[in-house]
Design goal:
By secondary structure, the chain is mainly alpha-helical. It folds into 2 domains: about 10-190 and about 300-330, HUPs (Rossmann fold); about 210-295, Tyrosyl-Transfer RNA Synthetase, CATH 1.10.240.10. It contains 13 helices and 5 strands. The strands form 2 sheets. It has a 3-stranded parallel beta sheet. Helix 1 links the parallel strand 1 and strand 2 (about 40-45). Helix 3 (about 60-75) crosses helix 12, helix 7 (about 130-145) packs across helix 8 (about 155-175) and helix 9 packs antiparallel against helix 12. It is globular and about 70 Å long. It starts with 10 loop residues before the first strand and ends in a 5-residue tail after the last helix. The structure holds adenosine-5'-tetraphosphate (AQP). Adenosine-5'-tetraphosphate binds near residues 16, 20 and 201.
Length: about 325
């Protein structure tokens, strides 16, 4: 008799904060790859609203943005029948495990986190404890789902290291409890910079809307934003040190077209920045068009969104609950 061997898929977890309208940076750097990851791996994808409140949020806007980001996850092609798609605060185990893990994390480890240093400078009026312990909540997110892999950009590497350290420490004391996650480095690790200050990454919470392109911007707005993008005075499309603005536009164009930097430089040889900016804008408009069109349909179907969120919360709670229970028993809590 023939035996069929099925290989178990690796588990992957990815989150996005509903701290604003997702940008072209979120899309090219993360979301664009999620559909492929969902096909290849056993995927869990969360709207990380607990993380978003480390920076002050307007309650009505946070609620709206959470629905919008959930709709966006569906618009990029994630299938709730195949992947776990959920809102982080719908699964209380995240906050519960984060508390436990706080007690297995050293103050000195957290104090080295560069994102905390950056964010406490940019939000100097609200340097809260949540902002400081953000990486512990992120560790809880990952470890609850026993994720083998976590897609990380350069800015999240340090946080994944902490998650690994916490998992190893806990496993060392109590025996094997958590899968120690590995970073998943995607093929195109695009890092998109602000259109107004190309030394800073493009961020959805940038107070200057000209700095970022949102995934929901209309073609007219996208064109306008690229036309006002900061460049340099050389008027030559080439990738080189000191040309941050042009390098960024070339990177964006490369992600949308698949062309290499040399091919792009050849295509625009002898042409000015005006022509180049228009072509980059057109490429971005076409890249985002199908996502925006699908999103516009999904966001109006409130009942469907509610159903997806409820199903996701249910499945995620079941998976996360197993890990939380195991952890609580090991720590010595009297179980109900
Ligand atoms: N500019 C970027 N280029 C490439 N990738 C990016 N990501 C974010 N900005 C860029 C990636 O998007 C995923 C989701 O990000 P997030 O929402 O969880 O947090 P973030 O990195 O803090 O994103 P923002 O837009 O900068 O949000 P705010 O302004 O609220 O801090 C992550 O995989 C991230 O690497």
């Amino acid at each position: 008799m023939e035996t069929v061997q099925t290989e178990k898929k690796k588990k992957i977890l990815s989150c996005i904060q509903p701290s604003g309208i997702p940008t072209l940076g979120n899309y090219l750097g993360a979301l664009k790859n999620w559909k492929t990851l969902a096909d290849e791996f056993d995927g869990a994808f969360a709207v990380a609203d607990l993380h978003a409140i480390t920076v002050r949020q307007d309650p009505a806007k946070l609620r709206q943005q959470t629905s919008e980001v959930l709709a966006l996850l569906l618009a990029i092609g994630l299938d709730p029948e195949k992947s776990v798609i959920f809102v982080q605060s719908h699964v209380p185990a995240h906050a519960q495990l984060a508390w436990v893990l706080n007690c297995y994390t050293q103050f000195g480890e957290m104090n080295r986190m560069t994102q905390f240093k950056d964010k406490s400078t940019s939000h100097a009026d609200n340097v809260n404890v949540g902002l400081f312990s953000y990486p512990v909540l992120m560790a809880a997110d990952i470890l609850l789902y026993q994720a083998d892999l976590v897609p990380v950009g350069a800015d999240q590497k340090q946080h994944l290291e902490i998650a690994r350290d916490i998992a190893n420490r806990f496993n060392g004391i109590y025996g094997n409890t958590f899968t120690v996650p590995d970073p998943y480095i995607g093929k195109n690790g695009a890092r998109v910079m602000s259109l107004q200050d190309p030394s800073k990454k493009m961020s959805k919470s940038d107070p200057n809307p000209k700095g970022f392109v949102s995934v929901f911007d209309t073609p007219e707005v996208i064109m306008k934003k690229f036309k006002s993008a900061v460049t340099d005075s050389e008027a030559c499309v080439r990738f080189a040190e000191g040309k941050d603005g042009i390098n960024n536009l070339m990177g964006i164009y490369s992600c949308c077209t698949g062309l290499t930097m040399d091919e792009i430089a050849n295509q625009f040889e002898g042409k000015g920045y005006g022509d180049f900016k228009v072509e980059v804008a057109n490429a971005v408009i076409e890249e985002l068009r199908p996502v925006r069109e699908r999103y516009n349909q999904i966001i109006t179907d409130k009942a469907y969104l509610k159903e997806v969120a409820a199903k996701g919360a249910d499945t995620a709670s079941r998976i996360a609950g197993r890990t939380l229970n195991k952890t609580m028993k090991k720590v010595g809590f009297l179980m109900p």
